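hey so u asked for the seq, here:
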Amino acid sequence: MDRNHVMRSALWASAVYNLGGTLLFVFPSSLGRLAGLPAPVPRVYTALLAVFVALFGGAYAWLARQPRIDRPLVAMAALGKAGVFAVILVSWLLGEVPGRGVLAVSGDVVFAAVFAWWLLGAMADPAEAEASRAARRGARAAPPTQA
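ran it, structure tokens below
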């Protein structure tokens, strides 16, 4: 199994998933209610959330197209996806969000697991470790640019 192929597929799927999440916040009174989001909410909050969810989706698509997948960005993505799921799960446990809210973000925990799986495999891969060391050496050796 090619870990990078699986990871790129997961990044593309996550970008599409985030597009769906963006639509939930853009249309909170219709699509958002289907996912169990509370309403009414001031438009500024839903608009800001839509922007952030869309930005992360764009970052996943951008990352999927890169020749080398950036591990720190994937780590941030895994933490973000796991964090979103944790917030909704705790909110459901406290009775603040219906169960369909947990279902709506269940993809986030799946993506977080795939991202973590890829990160652990990338750290164990000797070729990937050497490529990372070479990239860091190259970054340190590059002379500063003058504007």
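Helices lie at 3-26, 28-34, 43-65, 71-93, 99-104, 106-124, 126-141. The chain has a mean pLDDT of 88.
lmk if thats what u needed
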